Amino acid sequence: MNEIEKYVKPYDNNFTTMVPTNFVIKMRTCKIWQLIRFIMINIKMLIVVRKSH
Known about the structure:
The chain is mostly helical and 53 residues long. Helix content is 57%, strand content 0%. It has one domain.
């Protein structure tokens, strides 16, 4: 066991999960933003595939 691991408590306040902000929730549910991200990811994929061929 590491020296540091002795002092780590598994259910301490430092181990909470991140809660999305209101802005993040709105972006995740916005259909227009999802479409833009979809197009951007597809363009990136096309670039990667084109470089490999």
